[in-house]
C-alpha cells in the first residue's frame, strides 16, 4: 500500500507508464522525469502492458502459498481447548503434540491469547462496544454498602472493635439478638457509555420513585454539561421494570433499554465502575462514621471525572471527552 512519503502513487505510476508505453519515452528519460530508478520505471511500465490501469495498485505482500502454516483443523482444536478448558499454550501444545510457540502464535492470530478476552460464562470472545458520542447511552444501576457505625467499621478497625462500635452506635433499631441494625447505603450510579462521565447519589432505598428521581436529576446534570441523554440501559430490577420508570423516560425523551436476564456483562461498564467506587471511595480509607463517608462521595466523583486517568479512553480523565466545556480541567 502506498504511503504519504511514497515516490509514486497509483496515479503517478499510471502517468509514468503511459509516457513509456503510449508515448514512446525511453525508460531512462521517464525515470528521470519522475525522479525514480530505472528498474522502478521499468517495473510499472511492464505491469501497465500486461494489466493496464488495474496493474498500478499495490499487490499484497502475502505469499501465494504458506506450506508451513498451521492446518485449519489443528487451529480449530487449539481454539476449542482454549475456549472449553481455558488451557494455556504449554498445556494445549502437550495435548496436541505441537510446539508451545506454534500454539501461542495461533492464539494471538485468533485474538484469544489472553484469558480476559474470553467470557467466563459463554466461553466466547468478549464483545466490547462504545457508543459514538456522549449521551447516546447512559448506564444506570444501584450498588449497596453497609452503613459504617460510629468509630469505624470492622474492615479497618477489626471485627472485635467493629462489634463494639456497632453496639455503641445510638438511635439504631435492634434485631432479635439485640444487635443494632446499621442499615444499608444504596448508591444509585449513572455513567455515560462514551465518555465514562459518572454521576452518583446515596439513598436509603432502591424503590422506583427513588430511581426515577436520580434519573431526572442525572439527565439535568448531563444537560448542564452539554450532553443530551438519548438512551438508558438498566438491569431487570423492579424499579426499572415499573410503568413509572417507563413513563418518566418517555417524558424526558429517553429510550429505556434493559440487559439480558442474568447477564451483568451487558452492563459491564457500570459494573466495573462499581468496583472502582468500592476501592476508591467506600473502603479506601478510615471513616469515623457513615456521615463522613457519604460526604466524601461528591469529592471522589469529581476526582474520578476530572483528574483520574481512565485506561479505557487512552489514560485521560472522562471529562476530556466532553469538548469545549468551560472549567472541565478544574
UniProtKB/TrEMBL annotation:
Pfam families in UniProt: HTH_32 (PF13565), rve_3 (PF13683)
* Annotated stretches, region: Disordered: 155-180
**Its GO biological process terms?**
DNA integration
Occurrences of domain Integrase catalytic (ranges): 166-325
Q: Name one GO molecular function term.
A: nucleic acid binding
**Superkingdom of this protein's organism:** Bacteria
**Which NCBIfam families does this UniProt record tie to the protein?**
transpos_IS481
Q: Could you tell me what this protein is called?
A: IS2 transposase TnpB
Query: Which organism is this entry from?
Result: Arthrobacter saudimassiliensis
Organism classification, top ranks?
A: Bacteria, Bacillati, Actinomycetota, Actinomycetes, Micrococcales
Amino acid at each position: 500500500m502506498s504511503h504519504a512519503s511514497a515516490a509514486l502513487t497509483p496515479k503517478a505510476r499510471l502517468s509514468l507508464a503511459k509516457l513509456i508505453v503510449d508515448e514512446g519515452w525511453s525508460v531512462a528519460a521517464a525515470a528521470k522525469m519522475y525522479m525514480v530508478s530505472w528498474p522502478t520505471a521499468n517495473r510499472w511500465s511492464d505491469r501497465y502492458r500486461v494489466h493496464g490501469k488495474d496493474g498500478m495498485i499495490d499487490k499484497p505482500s502475502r505469499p501465494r502459498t504458506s506450506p508451513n502454516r498451521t492446518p485449519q483443523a489443528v487451529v480449530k482444536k487449539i481454539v476449542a481447548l482454549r475456549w472449553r478448558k481455558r488451557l494455556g499454550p504449554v498445556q494445549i501444545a502437550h495435548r496436541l503434540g505441537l510446539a508451545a510457540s506454534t500454539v501461542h502464535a495461533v492464539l494471538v492470530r485468533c485474538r484469544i491469547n489472553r484469558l480476559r478476552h474470553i467470557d467466563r460464562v459463554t466461553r466466547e470472545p468478549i464483545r466490547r462496544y462504545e457508543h459514538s458520542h456522549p449521551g447516546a447511552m447512559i448506564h444506570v444501576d444501584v450498588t449497596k454498602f453497609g452503613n459504617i457505625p460510629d468509630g469505624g467499621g470492622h474492615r479497618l478497625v477489626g471485627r472485635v472493635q467493629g462489634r463494639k462500635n456497632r453496639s455503641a452506635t445510638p438511635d439504631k433499631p435492634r434485631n432479635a439478638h439485640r444487635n443494632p441494625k446499621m442499615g444499608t447505603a444504596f448508591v444509585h450510579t449513572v455513567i455515560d457509555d462514551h465518555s465514562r462521565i459518572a454521576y452518583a447519589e446515596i439513598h436509603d432505598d432502591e424503590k422506583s420513585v427513588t430511581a426515577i428521581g436520580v434519573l431526572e436529576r442525572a439527565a439535568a446534570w448531563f444537560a448542564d454539561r452539554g450532553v443530551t441523554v438519548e438512551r438508558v440501559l438498566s438491569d431487570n430490577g423492579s424499579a426499572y421494570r415499573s410503568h413509572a420508570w417507563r413513563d418518566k423516560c418517555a417524558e424526558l425523551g429517553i429510550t429505556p433499554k434493559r440487559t439480558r436476564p442474568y447477564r451483568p456483562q451487558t452492563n459491564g461498564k457500570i459494573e466495573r465502575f462499581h468496583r472502582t467506587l468500592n476501592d476508591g471511595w467506600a473502603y479506601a480509607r478510615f471513616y469515623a462514621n457513615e456521615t463522613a463517608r457519604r460526604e466524601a462521595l461528591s469529592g471522589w466523583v469529581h476526582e474520578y471525572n476530572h483528574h483520574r486517568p481512565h485506561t479505557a479512553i487512552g489514560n485521560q480523565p472522562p471529562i476530556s471527552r466532553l469538548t469545549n466545556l468551560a472549567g472541565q480541567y478544574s
